Amino acid sequence: MHSDTPARVDSSSPPSPESRAVRVWPGVVLVALFWCVFFGVRILDAPISTGFMSIMAASALMTLLYVGWWLFNGTVRLADRLFDVGVLIVGALVAGWFCHPSLGPIGLVFLGLPLALSAWTIWLLVARRWSASTRRAGTIVVLALVWLSQIVVRIDGVDGSNQASVSLRWRPTAEDLYVAEQAKSAPSQVNSAPLQPREGDWLDFRGPLRRGELHGQRIATDWSSSPPHELWRRNVGPAWSSVLVIDGRLFTQEQRGELEAVTCLDAETGQEIWAHTDAVRFSDGQAGAGPRATPTFAHGRIYSLGATGVLNCLDAVDGKPIWSRDLVADTGAPLPMWGFSSSPLVVENSVVVYGGAQPDKGLVAYNANTGEPIWTAATGPISYSSAQIATCGGESQLLFLSDAGLIAVAPQSGQLLWQYSVPAAGIWRVVQPRQLDDGTILIGCEDLGLVRLEAAKQQDQWQVTPRYKVRAIRPAYNDFVVCEDLLYGFDDSIFCCVETATGKRRWKAGRYGHGQVLLLADQKLLLVVTETGEVVLISAVPEKHVELGRFQAVAGKTWNHPVVAHGRLYVRNDHELACFDVQEPTNPAAGL
After folding, report:
1. Distance from the Cα of residue 248 to its chain's centroid
2. With contact defined as beta carbons under 8 Å apart, do 328 and 340 qualify?
3. What pLDDT tens digit does each residue of the chain (592 aa) get?
4. b/e map 226-245, b = 16+ CB within 10 Å
5. Looking at the domain 204-591, which fold is it?
6. Inter-residue contact 453 to 464 (CB < 8 Å)
7. Whose CA, among 34, 77, 85, 535, lies 20 to 30 Å from 8?
């Protein structure tokens, strides 16, 4: 063999990572699967909790699988693999440190990581045949841009379909503008005359018996030729509270920067009369800032519960505090994920709210005059519902729904009378129970669907029997109403009609998002406020879904319950409150 014979190349040895294209298809598959889940839960109209947990789980799982795949990707040098994962982790930590509080860890998992991995995958597809040094430089730039985008934005809440509202973090919020506006305004003169509730006033959360029904009043219905006329509109601070209307005054709650407020307005003009404030603030990434509950009027006083657990008793005339309690201090209750949301219920001489403290301080009753604790009762640790008065077997009872199930307790003592135990740890239940007749109760929530219960007393023992459990409707945080033998409400984001006797669905139509409904009982009409602030008038008939009219009342995400009092419709959301004239014409035939 001559010494200058060329050396034979061993074709069986694998090429080095530097000389071959990067294998990217597993990353493409993982990213594509995540976005299929992300958009799939919306297309399939999955329940809110299911959609939220599915997307969070999909994001976490994709991240783990993606990082694992990349660390074992033999088409890239080990040093480069470790470098790229390090860039991803360091970027996430920096973004987590500097991001706006509204984003937080959940926002980064929910939004940041999927965007980062998607952008990185696109870059790898483009640069898969380029040099390692170019890929490294591009990875730094791409991931840095994604994490920078997470630092410069804030989340202005998430709607019922888990769609985030994103803004540049330095832009003033509606609350910022409102607080600045309030600093320049002055309350009107307070009339010292005691408030005298009138027929047609709205004194409690969802009205009489908390059923969301209007009786004894009629409204105009020909909205095509004569739509509701706007009487006034004003900015308000963020809150998901509804309103009360008593003797020409309107009461609600709101957030004003670092102050949580109970406000009294002139129902005729919207001008502020007084405001009571507490130096507390609550905010979460989904619902945003502000109180969640609606105040209650009784005994000439306003009872309100703030999102951090401050329970106030205020003079309804001038807002002066009579007494105040702190639920967290009184019970040791943890601050709920979405804040305290229980609208106070006044029963005789006690006011009842939900604290959720374990083991036996779930419901808490205070003396309505002094604020002294009277009794406590055990419930599940999670609920965003409110206590509800009912009558079973001729006995007055308090109903309450939590993640442990439905309980009935004696209003005077808190003694447990009966319970329907359906534990679902960690599931938030929001919707108010609805009594149909003596001992017949409907409960609805995402995990259970709709359940009809029969409670009867046999000798000295209560017996509770479920008559049916159906999935014809799965209300999330949208209360339903009952007209005659039919239930009307939201099956997730779509409106529907269900027979109360059988649980059979009659129709399902009307994509109104996660809105709220009010029954106009005398006219057999349904007034729906959509999640985007439209008001829709619907016939309460079982044959089919019939819309009679609609108009845009307020703009933006609207979860608050509407109120109709004295021919006026009040609609609010987290930044504005508007009043409309819906008075029926003098000639009744003109409004039909």
Report:
1. 29
2. no
3. 444 545 454 445 455 555 578 999 999 999 999 999 988 887 777 777 778 888 889 999 999 999 999 999 999 999 999 999 999 999 999 999 999 988 888 788 888 999 999 999 999 999 999 999 999 999 999 999 999 999 999 988 888 887 888 899 999 999 999 999 988 887 777 778 899 999 999 999 999 999 999 999 999 999 999 999 999 999 999 999 999 999 999 999 999 999 999 999 999 999 999 999 999 999 988 889 999 999 999 999 999 999 999 999 999 999 999 999 999 999 999 999 999 999 999 998 999 999 999 999 999 999 999 999 999 999 999 999 999 999 998 899 999 999 999 999 999 999 999 999 999 888 889 999 999 999 999 999 999 999 999 999 988 899 999 999 999 999 988 999 999 999 999 998 899 999 999 999 999 999 999 999 999 999 999 999 999 999 999 999 999 999 999 999 999 999 999 999 999 999 999 999 999 999 998 765 544 4
4. ebbeebbebbbbbbbbbbbb
5. Methylamine Dehydrogenase; Chain H (2.130.10)
6. yes
7. 77
Residue with tokens 């001729």: 394
Closest residue by Cα to residue 503 from 516, 517, 491 = 491
Cis peptide before 359 (omega within 30 of 0): yes
Sequence-distant (6+) residues with CB within 8 A of 427 are: 49, 382, 403, 445, 446, 447
Q: Is-contact 185 246, C-beta < 8 A?
A: no
* SS3 call for 31: helix
Q: CA dist 555 to 58, 209, 250, 385, 492, Å?
A: 32, 30, 21, 26, 21
**Nearest 10 degrees: CA dihedral of 323, 328, 332, 336?**
140
* Gap between the Cα atoms of 323 and 58, Å rounded: 48
Angle at 172 between CA 572 and CA 274, to 5 degrees: 45
DSSP summary character for residue 585: P
Three-class SS state of 148: helix
The SS3 of residue 42 is helix
Instruction: Judge residue 315's burial from the number of C-beta atoms within 10 Å of its C-beta, 0-12 exposed, 13-18 middle, 19 or more buried.
Output: middle
Q: Tally the C-alpha atoms within 13 A of residue 224's C-alpha that lie toward its C-beta.
A: 5
Q: Which of 558, 568, 564, 566 is nearest to 520 (CA)?
A: 564
**C-alpha 124: how far from chain center:** 39
How far apart CA 436 and CA 497 sit, in angstroms, is 16
Residue type, 498: V
User: Can you state the angle between helices 48-71 and 78-98, rounded to 10 degrees?
Assistant: 140
Q: Are strands 516-520 and 213-214 parallel, antiparallel or unpaired?
A: parallel
The Cα–Cα gap between 555 and 552 comes to: 7
Structural domain boundaries of the chain?
Answer: 17-155, 204-591
- Quote the distance between the C-alpha of residue 459 and its chain's center: 42
Helix (H) or strand (E) holding 47: none
Token pair listed for 176? 């910022």
